[in-house]
Design goal:
This is Copper homeostasis protein cutC homolog. It comes from Streptomyces griseochromogenes. By secondary structure, this protein is of the alpha/beta class. It is built from eight helices and eight strands. The protein starts with 5 loop residues before the first strand and ends with a helix. The model has no long low-confidence stretch (mean pLDDT 96).
């Protein structure tokens, strides 16, 4: 029997978080400013959400739109913010940095991860913009705390990246491929059967949980529909 799939939902505030948990989400990704595809939320927001729900939270560490870590001063600020977020109750994170050529900015990733004190973290969809996904995975393979890749398989989304996702699922256990594949980015319910058949058991939704779009809140009913489909697909 396949194990129960993880359903992660993007939350911007307490209202989103409460609705997502009520709908059956297992975990939240906490961000702000979806116009920039999700930036680091405030420590106050994290603390409020942590007090309102009891499911896992992964907090975005991303200072600006794009996948660059920024200048040394900006990286220093991000490290300080990571410490503030930990004090606010965050114990799981989301991050990922590329250089100007699309290669992994390993120095920046290592600097931020070093401030997390062993907390678990996701390398986010920067992998879908990397020039060499395989090389990136192997460079990151031994970093402490990395347990998940959030990926659509392609920058354009799951429709274009499905074959890559299935291929990477088939490499599970190889060096650089031991982490969970968390599928998100243009993910639809009709993608689920093929992904589950390949052994993928973690799914990430944002807009799909918001019938009114990003100007509206997370809908517990929308999340529950995803939960039901993921649970029905267990065989």
């Amino acid at each position: 029997m396949s194990k129960r799939a993880v359903l992660e939902v993007i939350a911007l505030d307490v209202e989103d978080a409460v609705a997502a948990q009520a709908g059956g989400a297992d975990r939240l990704e906490l961000v702000t400013d979806m116009a920039a595809d999700g930036l680091t939320p405030s420590a106050a927001t994290v603390a409020g959400i942590r007090a309102a729900v009891d499911i896992d939270l992964r907090v975005m560490l991303r200072p600006a739109d794009g996948f660059a870590a920024g200048d040394p001063e900006g990286l220093d600020r991000l490290v300080r913010v990571a410490g503030e977020l930990r004090e606010a109750g965050a114990d799981q994170f989301v991050l990922g940095f590329l250089d100007a050529d699309g290669g992994l900015d390993l120095a920046a990733v290592e600097r931020v991860v070093g401030a997390l004190g062993g907390c678990r973290w996701t390398f986010h969809r920067a992998i879908d913009r990397a020039t060499d996904r395989d090389a990136l995975r192997k460079q990151l393979a031994d970093l402490p705390g990395l347990d998940t890749y959030l990926t659509a398989g392609a920058a354009e989304g799951v429709d274009e990246g499905l074959a890559t996702l299935l291929a990477e699922a088939g490499r599970r256990g190889e060096p650089g491929y031991g982490q969970t594949i968390l599928v998100g980015g243009g993910l639809r319910l009709d993608h689920v059967p093929a992904l589950r058949h390949a052994g993928i058991d973690a799914f990430h939704i944002g807009g799909a949980a918001r019938p009114e779009g990003w100007e509206g809140p997370v809908s517990a009913e929308a999340v529950a529909r995803w939960r039901a489909v993921l649970d029905d697909d267990v065989a």
